[in-house]
Automatic annotation (TrEMBL):
<comment type="similarity">
    <text>Belongs to the lycopene cyclase family.</text>
</comment>
<dbReference type="Pfam" id="PF05834">
    <property type="entry name" value="Lycopene_cycl"/>
</dbReference>
<dbReference type="InterPro" id="IPR010108">
    <property type="entry name" value="Lycopene_cyclase_b/e"/>
</dbReference>
<dbReference type="GO" id="GO:0016117">
    <property type="term" value="P:carotenoid biosynthetic process"/>
</dbReference>
<dbReference type="GO" id="GO:0045436">
    <property type="term" value="F:lycopene beta cyclase activity"/>
</dbReference>
<dbReference type="GO" id="GO:0016705">
    <property type="term" value="F:oxidoreductase activity, acting on paired donors, with incorporation or reduction of molecular oxygen"/>
</dbReference>
<dbReference type="InterPro" id="IPR008461">
    <property type="entry name" value="CrtY"/>
</dbReference>
<protein>
    <submittedName>
        <fullName>Lycopene cyclase</fullName>
    </submittedName>
</protein>
<dbReference type="InterPro" id="IPR036188">
    <property type="entry name" value="FAD/NAD-bd_sf"/>
</dbReference>
Length: 395
């Protein structure tokens, strides 16, 4: 990393080098090349160790176009597996890796991608690093991951994934988005498998859980056991990734934003921008990056207003998804949650595509609930309102 002076001026400072700020950096360099953009990442690599996926139907053609150089893997379809139902679905599925994000943002920003740089103080127009350096800017954008809040009630999607090289070809031709034929542990459990080449896989053990504790050793053992059950012999573990993603159950989005520091823009998971049920954040992050880059004035106040407006609008439009999540997390026994998803995946493909894109029609919403409910009606009625869940959550 090049040596930076103790006092630096920029137009935009992006605090945190995750997906949201990485996409904002790329859009600003493309659409606003006159601005000096500095990105701060506390680790030695932008993006950490992650794989971000989305369906081809999740984003607009325009966004798909500028995301294209970031796509590392692309499949034309995917499959799901449950104890009583398996299915292949014809929808493109695409993956961006943190390595590709790091390469793209580093190339775009050059010496203005500051690695191993940790912010100690963040204010609307200045960031101070732990080594005493200061950056002043018209816009400061905070993308350092989720912010804990008493205003939101959450469940958790936690996972550990390993990219593995096998001793022989695995035989998969498409991703397995959910393999819930496995034993149900710690909530709704499924395996997620991406075929990266003929003998290389990303295998993730995922749990939809009430708690956010992640037992990495246990999940590593469970991944190995799953690979063995499939007849795959692991020759080498190439890399590992893990995470704990929020699943929205209820909340007061206005109160959540009142808790944030005035005029400091928050983006990504910190802005509560994610698909409420799946936890996918890439589509929201890409849309916000486009909106920020198109602002007539890039200041902390303007970016904050843009991010807050998108966050509140998305939260209110997605109330139905939080209702479904409450049915899953509160009204259903943990080891029976897989039945809800198994039933869902019997629905028509266009509805499933609109569900992932968070664009359900009124008929879609009715269709999801029509038929024999997968959870006890008496218990479900207790969690119809978000207010009841806010009051009912643990301290």
């Amino acid at each position: 990393m090049a040596t930076q002076s103790s006092n630096t001026r920029a137009d935009v400072v992006l605090v945190g080098g995750g997906l949201a700020n990485g996409l904002i950096a790329l859009r600003l360099r493309t659409l606003r090349p006159d601005l000096r953009v500095i990105l701060l990442e506390r680790e030695k690599r932008i993006g950490g160790e992650h794989t971000w996926c989305h369906f081809g139907t999740d984003v607009s053609p325009g966004i798909s176009g500028w995301l294209r150089p970031l796509i590392v893997h692309r499949w034309s379809d995917y499959e799901v597996r449950f104890p009583g139902h398996s299915r292949a679905l014809k929808t493109p599925y695409l993956a961006i890796t943190s390595q590709r994000l790091h390469e793209a943002v580093s190339a775009a920003l050059g010496q203005d991608a500051w690695l191993s740089a940790t912010a100690s103080e963040v204010s609307p127009h200045q960031v101070t690093l732990t080594d005493g350096r200061r950056i002043t800017a018209a816009a400061v954008v905070d993308g350092r991951g989720p912010r804990r809040s008493r205003s939101l009630a959450l469940g958790w999607q936690k996972f550990l994934g390993q990219e593995v090289k096998l001793t022989s070809p695995h035989g998969l031709t498409r991703p397995i988005i959910m393999d819930a034929t496995v034993s149900q542990l710690d909530g709704y459990r499924f395996l997620y498998v991406l075929p990266l080449d003929a003998s290389r896989l990303l295998i993730e053990d995922t749990r939809y859980s009430d708690g956010f504790d992640l037992d990495r050793d246990a999940l590593r053992a469970d991944i190995l056991a799953y690979a063995n059950q499939q007849g795959w012999t692991v020759e080498k573990i190439v890399r590992e990734e893990h995470g704990v993603l929020p699943i929205a159950l209820a909340g007061d989005i206005d109160a959540y934003w009142r808790e944030a520091r005035a005029q400091v823009a928050e983006v990504g998971l910190r802005a509560a921008l994610f698909q409420p049920t799946t936890g996918y954040s890439l589509p929201d992050a890409a849309r916000l990056a486009d909106q920020i880059a198109a602002l007539p004035h890039i200041t902390s106040a303007h970016v904050r207003a843009c991010a807050e407006a998108q966050s509140k609008t998305a939260w209110r439009k997605r109330r139905y998804f939080r209702l479904l999540n409450r049915m899953l997390f509160r009204a259903c026994e943990p080891d029976q949650r897989f039945k809800v998803l198994e039933r869902f995946y019997r629905l028509r493909l266009p509805l499933i595509q609109r569900f992932y894109a968070a664009r359900l029609t009124l008929w879609d919403k009715a269709r999801v609930l029509i038929g024999k409910p997968p959870v006890p009606v008496s218990r479900a009625l207790n969690y119809l309102s978000e207010h009841s869940v806010i009051e009912d959550r643990p301290a």
